[in-house]
Structures are given as C-alpha cells and as structure tokens.
C-alpha cells in the first residue's frame, strides 16, 4: 500500500480501537488538509530529515512523508506504534518510529545530522521541550511547532504586548519567531479547551553563545519576575542601576518596554 492508498485517519483509529488519552495530552489532527498545510509551512521536502514529537495516529506524519522528507518520530504512547509502523511501510521506510519520552530523547543522535522539527506538541510538555531545543546542545535547522495559542503568542510577542516576557526574549535571541497559523479548538479530536497556533522558528546566525543565554535567563527571570517595577529595583540583586548603565539601558524603564536587543545588552553586561 502506498501513502496515497491509506484509509482516512478516523478509520485507522477505529480499526485499531484507539481513543485519545488525556494524560498524554492527546488532541489529534485528523483532517489531512490541515496537516498538509502545516507541512507546507514547515518548508520541508525531499532530502530533508524531520523530527516529529508525538505523531499519535500519524496525520501530520503522513503529510510530512508526502513531501518526500524522511521522518524520525518519537511517541510516548505505545498503542500507536503498530499503526505508525504501517505508515512507515507505506512510505517505503522513510519513517523511523521510536517509542519513548521526547523530554529524555537525544535529538542529535535521533536525527543523525541536521534536521527540522515539526510537531503538534502535547500541551503539557510543549514549553519545556522548546526551551530544551533553544538552549540545549542540539540546534535544529528550523522548528514548526503547534502550541496552545497563548504560548505561541508568548514566543512571538513584541515589547508592549501583554504576552511579552522571558519566553519571547530567549526564543527571539536564538531564532526568528512568527505565528504562521491559527487553529480553533474544534480542529482537534477531541477538542482541547483552548485555541492553538503554529509558530515557525528559524535559528539566527551566528548562534548566541551559551554564556549569553545563561545570563539572559537570569536577567529576564529577575526583570519579568517583578515586571511592574523599574529595572533599577527588579535587577537589584544583579547590579541594579549600575548594570543598566553598563548596558546603556534606562534604569527607570520597566521590563516590558525593553526589546530583545536591550535584554541582550543587559545579559552581556552581566557576563
Ligand atoms: N501529532 C498528532 C496529531 O497532530 O494528531 C498527535 C498530537 S497530540 C497533541 C500529542 C502527541 O504527543 C500524542 O500522541 C501523545 O501521546 C504524544 N506525547 C505526549 N507526551 C509525549 C512525550 N513526552 N514524548 C513523546 N510523545 C509524547
């Protein structure tokens, strides 16, 4: 059987007698028009390697395989493994399925080289996974990731947005970040309580060094931990007004008005 001959996902789920398990954050995309759109937005194609976290019944996996890419999929719920192996056979071996926890997986070893990340992430581990990929040793070529909308907005936010905070500053220091697709809760089976959105992140060159990221995490934690206070006071433990002066930042400003370059200057001043 080829990819084109595979039955609709709802039939596959019914045939394998599979229902979503809430504890794994399972909300499936069963409409191939939607998963194909995400695959297009990811810009992957023949010759590319893609890592997908949480393939579940494989709707996004199918769309990624249709582009000609090779997919390495990490799924925690072992009930889905037989169904994903059928999909791998239809894709003539371009799908490698690994059963395990993506939080513990060695992405570099899985990819075996440069790879793109494309996933409809489980809500409960979406942000920690992103932080791992932004700050960890493995640097993906690009990331096209579905989050709950509120998290997507926090990743791509600009100064003065309510959503602007630590996640925006760290994400946008490592990558360009843009919300490229919004999806209502009803697009998923079963529908979650909130809407979702896809963020596309592309690493910036040159990669920021680890010491800068570590300092940035300290500065943003202090500044946004007390976001209504002036920096001279919220950053007191890190040097307060003197640190701001060294970075060329107004110590009377508040965290939400300091752009990503401003936080990088503060982090550099701290290192
Ligand atoms: N990609 C599928 C789709 O779009 O229909 C399923 C997405 S669902 C939101 C999240 C998937 O991640 C589920 O299949 C779930 O079992 C899996 N999952 C949850 N936690 C995981 C983890 N720590 N590591 C790997 N997979 C995980």
Descriptive report:
Helix 2 packs across helix 3 (59-66) and helix 8 (166-174) packs across helix 12. Strand 4, helix 6 (126-135) and strand 5 form a beta-alpha-beta unit. It is built from twelve helices and seven strands. With 271 residues, the protein is of the alpha/beta class. The radius of gyration is 20 Å and the shape is elongated. The chain folds into two domains: 3-203, Rossmann fold; 210-270, Helicase, Ruva Protein, domain 3 (Orthogonal Bundle). The structure holds S-adenosylmethionine.
Provide a short characterization of the protein structure.
By secondary structure, the protein is an alpha/beta fold. Helices cover 39% and strands 16% of the residues. S-adenosylmethionine is lined by residues 24-29, 53-57, 59-60, 74-77, 101-103, 120, 122, 125.
Secondary-structure blueprint of this entry?
Blueprint: H1 9-15, H2 32-42, E1 49-53, H3 59-66, E2 70-75, H4 81-90, E3 95-99, H5 107-111, E4 116-120, H6 126-135, E5 143-148, H7 149-156, H8 166-174, E6 175-183, E7 196-203, H9 210-225, H10 231-234, H11 240-247, H12 260-270
Helix pairs in contact: 2-3, 8-9, 8-12, 9-12, 11-12
